[in-house]
Write a structure and sequence with these properties.
The protein is an all-alpha fold. 65% of the residues lie in helices and 0% in strands. The protein contains 4 helices and no strands. The protein has helices spanning 18-30, 35-41, 46-59, 69-102. The longest helix is centred in the C-terminal third of the chain and has 34 residues, at 69-102. The protein is elongated and about 80 Å long.
């Protein structure tokens, strides 16, 4: 019963270059080896490799149902800009309230 409380240690978060991802996707697309085998050979998670393959298919226009990489980058930038603008509006509201008190 002691083992039920213990969790498998998490693998540290790693980042990979776009070239490396493209190489892995190419290996999977060739059909010589399965996605699982490629993942094991390069000590990657099968889920991660499947995600890279799916994203490559979306980027190439071979698959619908997702954002292309450029659309995803644009969305991230727009969300960041939106957050910054909301913070600016909040600061301006506070400044307006402060100066409204001062003039009374």
């Amino acid at each position: 019963m002691e083992s039920m409380g213990k969790k498998k240690p998490r693998r540290p978060c790693r980042s990979f270059t776009p070239e490396f991802k493209a190489e892995i996707v190419d290996l999977c697309r060739r059909g010589d080896r399965s996605v699982g085998q490629v993942a094991r050979d390069f000590e990657l998670t099968e889920t991660g490799v499947r995600h890279w393959v799916k994203q490559a298919e979306v980027d190439a226009g071979e698959r619908n149902g997702g954002l292309t990489s450029s659309e995803r980058e644009e969305l991230v930038a727009l969300r960041r800009q939106n957050r910054r603008l909301r913070e600016d509006v909040d600061v301006l509201k506070r400044a307006t309230a402060f100066f409204a008190k001062e003039t009374r």
